[in-house]
Amino acid sequence: MRRAVAEYPSDKQDKFMLRLPDGLKDRIKAKADEHGRSMNAEIVQLLENEYPAPTDVLHLHVDDIRKLLDIYEKETDPKRRLYLQLVISDLVTAGNDFQIVFDEDGNF
CA torsion sign, 27 to 30 to 34 to 35? Predict the structure, then answer.
């Protein structure tokens, strides 16, 4: 989703100085040109994809998190409970690439 420039004035945004290895700037520039974006927009898009804000992706997994919490509540095996905690934690911060598949019995 593109944001209007006036909505996010650059003088109000965080700034970060970055050193790049030789040749990386040229590769980023080429990819940015290919996508019709500035280098800054290309880098921001890559970072947003890799580090999505939890509130941006949480809605994608809320049903699965609820199912896992139901399973967790009933689970008595400490190792299984720890495993479920880790899966839930991954879902909270995961992007689109992380998916849980449940069978008809509610197992995953």
Answer: positive
pLDDT tens-digit profile of 40-83? 999 999 998 888 776 656 667 788 888 889 999 999 999 999 99
Q: Which residues of 5-17 are buried (b: 16+ CB within 10 A; e: fewer)?
A: eeeeeeeeeeeee
pTM here? 0.46
CB-based contacts of 90, cutoff 8 Å, min separation 6: 98
Specify whether the CB–CB gap between 86 and 100 falls below 8 A: no
Angstrom CA distances, 47 to 3, 29, 50, stand at 16, 15, 5
Note the helical H segments in the chain.
24-35, 39-50, 54-74, 78-93
C-alpha distances out from residue 103 to 26, 70, 75, 108, Å: 47, 15, 18, 6
